[in-house]
Structures are given as C-alpha cells and as structure tokens.
Amino acid sequence: MPAPTSSRTLWKGAISFGLVHIPVTLHSATAESRMKFNLLDKSSMTPVGNRQVNKSTGEAMQREEIVKGFEVEKDQFVVLTPDEIKAAMPHSTQTIDIEAFVDREQIPSVYFNKPYYVSPGGKGGQKPFALLRETLERTGKVGIAKVVISTKQHLAMLVPQGKGLVLNLLRWADEVRDTAGLAWPGDDVKVSAAELKMAEQLVAAMAGDWQPDLFHDEFREKLMALVEQKAEEGGLRSVAPLPGEEEPASAEVIDLTELLRRSLKGNGAAAAPAAKKSPPARETAANDEAAPVRKAAARKSSSTARATAKPATRRKSG
After folding, report:
1. How many domains does the structure of the chain reveal?
2. Is 260 contained in some domain?
3. Where would I find the Ku domain in this sequence (predicted)?
4. C-alpha span between 39 and 121 (Å, rounded)
5. N or C: at which end does the chain have fewer Cβ atoms within 10 angstroms?
6. Residue 19 within any structural domain of the chain
7. What gap in Å lies between CA 140 and CA 305, rounded to an integer?
8. pLDDT in tens, 32-66
9. Do the beta carbons of residue 3 and residue 286 sit within 8 Å?
10. Model confidence, pTM
C-alpha cells in the first residue's frame, strides 16, 4: 500500500531556465518505513540517549569543547571553524536552475538519490508548469539542474511524471564508484542462441505490469506482528519518567487513542478535562520523514495506556 500523499511544503522557490521563471513547491515523494527502536536501560526501563563521549577517555564532552576536523591523511586532521564552514556554504537562490536538457535514458540509475514531487507555486505558475511538463514529455528530455536545499547544494534531475514533475536529487560524479575491478562478464563469455531463447521465454512467462503493492517488507511485517502479539499477551512495560517529568496520577480513565486521533484531526483542544492540556497540533504530512516515528509513538502510547490505566466499567447492552 503506497504512503499517503504529502501536502506539507518542504521548499518554496522557482524553476529557472533561460528567461523562464516558474514558481513551484517541493513535497516529499517518499516515506521512511524502517522500524525504529528506542534504547532503554534493561533494569529501570529509562531511556538511554546518545552522548558525545571522548572515545579515548570515555568522558562526556561539552559542545564548546568540540571542533570539526577533516582527516587529510591517516590520523592527520585540519580543523575548520564554524565561520569558515559558514562562509563556504552555497548561497540559497530559491531556484531550481536548469543548466541542460538531456535524454532521460542517458542517466544511470546509480545516480538517483532522493525524489521530491514538484507542484506549481500558486495560480500564476499553472500554465508555465504545464508547458514545461508537456515539453519534457514530448521530447523525452529531463532537465539537469542545481538547487540548494537546507544550505546544501544538490545536482538534480527534473522529470515529468503523470500530470506533474519530480525533482530527483542526483549523486555527484565523485560519489559514484568506478566499476573497474569488478568481475563482470567479458567479451570471452558467450551465450548461445538456445540459452538466450529459453531465458527470453522465461522472462515472457513472468512478465507483468508494475504493481508495487504486490511487494512487501517481510522483515518489518514479521517484527510488527511480533510486537503486536507480545503487546496483546501482556508484554508491555512502562517506560519510567525522567526526573522532573513525573505527573500526578489521574483517577479518570482517558482514552488516549481517541485523544491522539482527535489531535491529528486538529481537534486537540477538545481533550478530556482531566487530561493535561496538549500543545496545539502542528501541521504535518502523512509521509514526511518523521511520520513513522510519530505513528510508532502513537501506537506505543496507546498500548501503554491500555496496559497501565484502570479498565473502565463496561455498560451492559440491552
């Protein structure tokens, strides 16, 4: 099942080539689905965080005691100051500057890095956006561009897809490894006509349309099934609150799942009176990078509430 559509705008700017200027917005085209485990103390069930520790002495380091060094040779570093690093950062122009149009087939898949959906930035960008998309579709070309996102410069490929455009961030040439030395078949390896025919018949027999829903992350599904099974069997353990985070127990049983559901719908203010007032719900996309973490936290909180809260008295049905 594909991830929900993202409505969250990650970047605002314009596509620029020649004298053409098309206002656009970027939206995440992927969603992280890997399971994330929290580190806990086995005995106390308190969270274990990441600490900046000196690997030689084992002592915790303060932020002001840490500098950034680039390793030039083995164990030989050059230290750069924050001001020096800031001065080298690319200037954000808020434009996707197309520098060339090339055939789509010419770009090897190893260069593909991360895709973003591109959407027109307002009513004024609808027609030029559609014109660019249609032109790329008819010519079989893609736009090779440079764009700065979050202070980092990227090489990118602007590709038509359906009624829209996709900006696929590309790897730089020095990030793609050379194939020299790999044991790929050489010209001396011959394939007979009979072998080729049988292989083609096998491919034809297994051929079909691209249906991504048919393929699943079986490892993740098995882990999630195991988590749910252990939770139902009473395997939930409450995480001990950190010092200063303890809250007085409430005698009223709160349906945390319902509160979370209402909060996600933008009705967090209508929470139960006895519950601690929640901060305003922040507008989020269903498939942005942090969504799986929030969903996991919601499931975890819901399950914990069911395990630790006093069961409510059921009303007998008529």
Report:
1. 2
2. yes
3. 58-187
4. 42
5. C
6. yes
7. 55
8. 555 566 666 666 666 666 666 666 676 776 777 77
9. yes
10. 0.58
